[in-house]
Amino acid sequence: MWNEPYLETCCRSALHRLTLVRRHGRPTGLADEPCLKRLAEMGFAQPREDGRFEITAAGRVRHASEILKRPAA
Length: 73
Prior knowledge:
- The chain is of the alpha+beta class.
- 47% of the residues lie in helices and 12% in strands.
- It has a 3-stranded antiparallel β-sheet.
- β2 (45-47) and β3 form a beta hairpin.
């Protein structure tokens, strides 16, 4: 049974971009800001004090399972 929240294609892309930028984070004001906020509400991203978003541990797990198609550890 599927029990994870559904991620729209745009949000999956935003989650992947969070992994690509690593510690730099994603700034606000870009086209994917609504997705970053949605990911933060789901616990997959978090806003930082410098106004950027970074991926969380839960976001890394979700990225591995949904984007990289790796089985859950």
